[in-house]
Amino acid sequence: MFAMLLRWSITALVAGVFAIPSPQTLNSSITLLIDNDLQGAAGSASNSGVLLLEAFSLNDASEACETAGEKLWSPELDTSNVQNMLNYLNYSSFKTGFSQFWIASKNGSTLAIDKDGRVFQTRLDARLPVVCTQSAPFSNATLQDTSERWRITLESNNEILTGFRDRFSFRFLGIRYAPQPERFTYSEPYVGSGNEASALDYGSQCVQAGNVGDEDCLFLNIWTAYIPGPNSTAETLKPVMFWIHGGAFTGGTGNDPTFDGGNLASRGDVVVVSINYRLSTLGFLALEDNVTNGNFGLADQINALDWVRNHIKDFGGDPDRITIFGQSAGAGSVRALIASPKSIGKFAGAIPLSNLGGINYGTTYSKYYTIDEEMEVVGNAILQETGCTNAISQVDCLRAISPYELANLNTIARYPVVDGTYLTSNELKLDGPTLPVHIMMGTTRDDGAPFISYPTTTNQSAYLASQGLPVPPTALFPIPNITNQTLALFEMATRLATDGIFRCIDQATVFAGLRNKRFPPIYYYEFNRTYQTRGWPNLDVCEPPKTATHPHGDPGAEYLKCHSGELYFVFGNLARQSLPLRDASDLPFAQFVVDTFSAFARTFDPNPDPEFLAARGYKTTLAEIERVGRWEASTFEGGMTMRTLQWPGFQGAFVEGRQCEGLGLGLGYYLQ
Predict the structure, then answer these.
(1) Full set of structural domains in the chain with CATH
(2) Which of 156, 183, 517, 558 has its CA 20 to 30 A from that of 644?
């Protein structure tokens, strides 16, 4: 440690005015406070932002701000909107016990500001916490300034990591959590060797189809607004939101700008982590050799979770308040981690967004093959296609093949399997002792739309057979009476696919888990406002209709609320993605979603504390809660209840009950 501090000091001397600060060189924690309304440079946040340091004398305070690349804050500066930050300090009972803060002197007067925003002269020999300017630039999906002025250094996992700050958060990208493992073996924890390491840019994504990525890919990213100092205590640590990306277990990356955690960390008062994990055949192939047992990607997720538990406190996160959350295959991962004896108990909260199960394509995300079954489904075909069937060592034969060739085979492995270690049963057990995890979960209204093809015929039975779907009872799944008959057939099939693959299985999970007291009360939701992600699924029906008054689409009109359409809202990244606001409700809805999801991470209740909302100036969310009422949890005694997430939202009962029963996926599915 002494050697590390010495290197920090030498770096500071050489670098001069823009010496890279650290909690050690400052001898202080560093808190970035900003009034983040999710509008980026166009919003009120562009007129706010400070860095808060611990107590110093006035001379040392000025030097500390300079070391951080800033100066003492002054009311005359453009960054004059600090009252919400002061209100937050009042609300959070700032741990120093101080009620006054150093700001810039004026006309020879030594000035301080109190938590009510009053500026007054104080004693020169006082020791007070420090308010510095925060002039770091905004970043976006394609541009971030990592130049030396904005960098910050800290020590974690026996490494000196250099990250940087932008307008909203400290960003540490591409942190290694595991060395590159030998192919088809389980990753091991990475331990630094006392050297410096850059955390200024993302690490490689994992190999996937299209000759993308690298096998050396086990990296994670961290966004935080609080860096603890040498004298910080556990009381100051923030909740952690641990993101697991989707992509069918075959694609995707935690580096995706859709999942950038800066806004969620800043506005939500949490620490956000995203991870990479091995995908496709490289991440999930199992063989019948009693050694190559699959689940390598799942094991990577647990390895990353262990890294976070061991080291996230260095980034301001509380290892005892980790919420894992993921969407699609990421939700399937969350479900598997709840089911896994290797991970349950290592996190306190879970948010699976749009988990798959039930019928057709969705089945294997919630019901796991044995290794023998996986071999029958894909393993033997992979061996046949690679010429490894009769090899003395099938796994060594596969190791000799290019990873890109394996990822681009006609057949790929993408299934969690019952390996006896990471998964010991063929599904999440919904009976037994209460599990130590708080759960919030749900779907988008039309999740199934991208998982079926648009019809080229109006023959219902032929079309549904081509999609692998049963012909349902007409009374339960009528074809809408509209002029466009292919669209009508698609809308009916979307309802069928959504119920069969998403909604029914998730509602049945809630019901059985609560009836058997396997889970505490569960907060359930359905998104009825979405903003479709760029690229996939590229379906016109997932976009609201464009009109003269709504050239970017009218979300108040009818359209399909498709899979992945909640992600920009959950991470608050519409402006960061340079996406237009389609109507006056997109922004307050995004604010509400960030505020409720982060509230769940803080307290395991998506209803934010009204005093917190008032202190932070989150008026639209406060008004929505006052207008609509609390988001109520489902309980077995109180009934199955759901928050419909739109603007304004409402609370109601679970839906599509008769349809789920007709598909054999009713609320009692897991009780049979």
Answers:
(1) 24-133 (3.10.100.10), 163-418 (3.40.50.1820), 439-671 (3.40.50.1820)
(2) 517
